[in-house]
Amino acid sequence: QVQLVESGGGLVQAGGSLRLSCAASGRTFSSYAMGWFRPAPGKEREFVAVINWSGGIRYYADSVKGRFTISRDNVKNTVYLQMNSLKPEDTAVYYCAADKMIIGRGLSRGINEYDYWGQGTQVTVSS
To answer: What residues pair up with 58 in beta bridges, in sequence order?
Structure first.
């Protein structure tokens, strides 16, 4: 069982930065890949970033590559999303999710592979 709680959202001007965090309960946190998602037109939730269990593999959506950085601290059971050079189009509710990985399957950019979801944190970027 994994419970996820996001925090760190808020209001920021374009070009500014925010750091989101997602705190996870349970002792099995390190065995999960962790992802960040946000709503987008035509999609329930759009992939933003994902990190594997060790933190050694990271993937990003093209729209955020070079601006966002995902990281994790398995001792603190927390995953982070550092967001720099924010744009108004980044405005959204950001959700973190946990994926219990299966051997032989790579990191997922879809929502169906994720087993647990947080309630989301609002990010608003003004122009």
So the answer is: 51
